[in-house]
Amino acid sequence: DSGVTQTPKHLITATGQRVTLRCSPRSGDLSVYWYQQSLDQGLQFLIQYYNGEERAKGNILERFSAQQFPDLHSELNLSSLELGDSALYFCASATNQETQYFGPGTRLLVL
Amino acid sequence: DAKTTQPTSMDCAEGRAANLPCNHSTISGNEYVYWYRQIHSQGPQYIIHGLKNNETNEMASLIITEDRKSSTLILPHATLRDTAVYYCIVRPASGNTPLVFGKGTRLSVIA
Predict the structure, then answer these.
(1) DSSP output for chain B
(2) Nearest Cα residue in chain B from A107
(3) 3-state secondary structure of A16
(4) CA distance B61 to B99
(5) Residues B27/A88, Cβ–Cβ less than 8 Å
(6) Is A60 on the interface with B (CB under 8 A)?
(7) How far is residue A92's CA from residue A32's CA, in Å, rounded to a whole number?
(8) Are the Cβ atoms of A99 and B34 closer than 8 angstroms?
(9) B46 contacts in A (CB within 8 Å)?
(10) Which of A11, A31, A86, B83 gets the highest tally of CB atoms within 10 A of its CB?
(11) What is the DSSP pairing of strand B105-110 with strand B9-13?
């Protein structure tokens, strides 16, 4: 158990819909990272937050957004969903010591 | 793009040492070598990391060559539960930065 929690574990929705994925970092970790893992793309970095502020952006679509709240939990919002958005979504958290610890992931299926 | 090269797959007999190689010939002096593994769609699990000295923890040993251009992750007594995809990642030592995952090595531990 990494100490990082993600909800929900599974999510099934339809094209065009919007979903919110939630991540609670390990106690004391200020950084949260979001990654997407699809069958054809592997694990890809989406976005990073540090203490409530956006720190870095990766291959994140404009339809996707994220935020980190004062209690340091983070949410990833996916809108206008397409079939190709079906994937595993992982968050990871880290302290200033930089080792990232990953949550169990949310499996999203868009039908 | 990932800055590492790993074999696509490897087999190891249960109880034997698993030696997973990684080439990172373009590594710079301020970059660490990190190893993670992913067991069947679970969240990536941190294993070990190092800068230039060999490292050992309860999970594995990391051997880094003197020129730092390659490294080997050693699982001393592989079990069936070690079957996973193993990722070797190079990342800067300073600051919180995203991980860049390659395709990793799929290790199969065989009874």
Answers:
(1) --S-B--SEEEEETTSPEEEEEE-TT--TTEEEEEEEE-TTSPPEEEEEESSS-EE-SS-EEEE-TTSSEEEEEETT--GGG-EEEEEEEEESSS---------EEEEEE-
(2) B41
(3) coil
(4) 21
(5) no
(6) no
(7) 6
(8) yes
(9) 2, 99-102
(10) A31
(11) parallel
Cβ contact B45–A31 (<8 Å): no
Closest Cβ opposite residue A50 in set B44, B93, B96: B96
Tokens for A98? 């930089």
Partner residue facing A101 (CB), from B46, B95, B101: B46
CA distance A30 to B89: 22
Task: Tell me whether residues A105 and B103 touch, CB distance under 8 A.
Answer: no
**Local confidence pLDDT in tens for the 111 residues of chain B:** 568 999 999 999 999 999 999 999 999 888 999 999 999 989 999 999 999 989 999 999 999 999 999 999 999 999 999 999 999 999 987 767 899 999 999 999 999
Give strand pairing partners of A91: A34
A19 CB-near residues (< 8 Å, 6+ apart): A11, A13, A77, A78, A81, A108
